């Protein structure tokens, strides 16, 4: 099973032939700019869609703190996204409460543990919309 940077490497090398379909769902590669290092950081994330936008969830497994990739995109919302062999620039933004209420059920169907993650943390898990530019 692919995970972490090995997942990113195989996904990129194979244009998503390896890594897009993962554990019964689909992933994209999100590349953000480190808020302190300025380095490019890539993470495989489960995704859904909301119209033309892609949707990802900053669950961090239900940990009390947001994942680093989310903190980085809040600081620098210009990101790069790869879905299979489609690589593009996007702008990331946290969904409004209304948008989150609409797309959360779709994301929980894709990865049912999202509901468990939300139940085990006091923070409101952010949903992020990625808009192609």
TrEMBL record:
<comment type="similarity">
    <text>Belongs to the F420H(2)-dependent quinone reductase family.</text>
</comment>
<protein>
    <submittedName>
        <fullName>Deazaflavin-dependent oxidoreductase (Nitroreductase family)</fullName>
    </submittedName>
</protein>
<dbReference type="GO" id="GO:0016491">
    <property type="term" value="F:oxidoreductase activity"/>
</dbReference>
<dbReference type="InterPro" id="IPR004378">
    <property type="entry name" value="F420H2_quin_Rdtase"/>
</dbReference>
<dbReference type="GO" id="GO:0070967">
    <property type="term" value="F:coenzyme F420 binding"/>
</dbReference>
<dbReference type="Pfam" id="PF04075">
    <property type="entry name" value="F420H2_quin_red"/>
</dbReference>
<dbReference type="GO" id="GO:0005886">
    <property type="term" value="C:plasma membrane"/>
</dbReference>
<dbReference type="InterPro" id="IPR012349">
    <property type="entry name" value="Split_barrel_FMN-bd"/>
</dbReference>
């Amino acid at each position: 099973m692919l995970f972490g940077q090995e997942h990113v490497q195989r996904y990129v090398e194979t244009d998503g032939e390896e890594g897009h379909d993962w554990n019964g769902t689909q992933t994209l590669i999100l590349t953000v700019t480190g808020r302190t290092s300025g380095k490019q950081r890539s993470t495989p994330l489960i995704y859904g869609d909301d119209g033309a936008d892609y949707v990802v969830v900053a669950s961090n497994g239900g940990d009390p703190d947001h994942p680093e990739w989310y903190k980085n995109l809040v600081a620098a919302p210009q990101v790069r996204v790869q879905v299979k062999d489609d690589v593009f620039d996007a702008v990331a933004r946290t969904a409004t409460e209304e948008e989150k209420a609409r797309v959360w059920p779709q994301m929980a169907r894709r990865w049912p543990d999202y509901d468990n993650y939300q139940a085990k943390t006091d923070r409101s898990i952010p949903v992020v919309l990625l808009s192609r530019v």
